[in-house]
Amino acid sequence: MKTAIYPGSFDPMTNGHLDIIKRALKIFDSVIVAIGENGAKSKAFSVKERVEMAKMSTQGLPVKVESYAGLLADYVKEKKISTIIRGIRAISDFDHEFQLSVINRDINPEIETVFFMTDKEYFFLSSSAVKEIAVMGGDPSPYVPEPVVSYLKKLVD
Ligand code: ADP
Q1: What is the DSSP letter of 29?
Q2: How would residue 1 be classed by pLDDT, with cut points 50, 70 and 90?
């Protein structure tokens, strides 16, 4: 069984994240979506909500959703899985993702990061854009898995 870990904030999970997961499942038997409890970015949703949304969005796929606290490199070691998945959209993602992968490998030389290129449809899609659409009263449903829509609606209430 080849399993890879897909870490991120998933605040919330979008169709772009789901596209990366489905691409990864062509190569890996299963994927663990690992939702960071902390991290530099401030979050709109609690870790519990982010886990719930990711679980509902990946139902029927060989995907497990977990949360982790602390360093990703430590979490990966604890899981005894050394492959990390990340998604790349624009060239601007590359710089940040390259830095992260080098740092992770510095901390734990076993770690390999595998990058998947997003579909052109999701090139400009991000969790922040989706939250902004929802907060401004727009309809986020074309951009997120169905279970995420009701969570986004709560942001406006
Ligand atoms: P983080 O805070 O770790 O960047 P995100 O949830 O924003 O967490 O992103 C997790 C991963 O998913 C990152 O590798 C990011 O580049 C990727 N990603 C986010 N949105 C998309 C998208 N629309 N298409 C492809 N990859 C994406």
Answers
A1: S
A2: confident
Write the pLDDT tens digit of every residue in 4-44: 999 999 999 999 999 999 999 999 999 999 999 987 778 89
Contacts of 90 (CB under 8 A, 6+ apart): 123
SS3 64: strand
* Atom 10 of ligand 1, nearest CA residue: 8
Residues 6+ apart with CB under 8 A from 22: 61
Residues paired with residue 92 on neighbouring β-strands, in sequence order? none
**How far does the centroid of ligand 1 lie from the alpha carbon of residue 85, in Å?**
10
Q: Is 23 a catalytic residue?
A: no
Q: Is 127 in the pocket of ligand 1 (CB under 6 A)?
A: yes
67 Cβ below 6 A of ligand 1:
no
- What string of DSSP letters covers 90-132? SHHHHHHHHHHHHHHHHH-TT-EEEEEEPPGGGTT--HHHHHH
pLDDT at 91 over 90: no
Contact 50, 34 (CB under 8 A): no
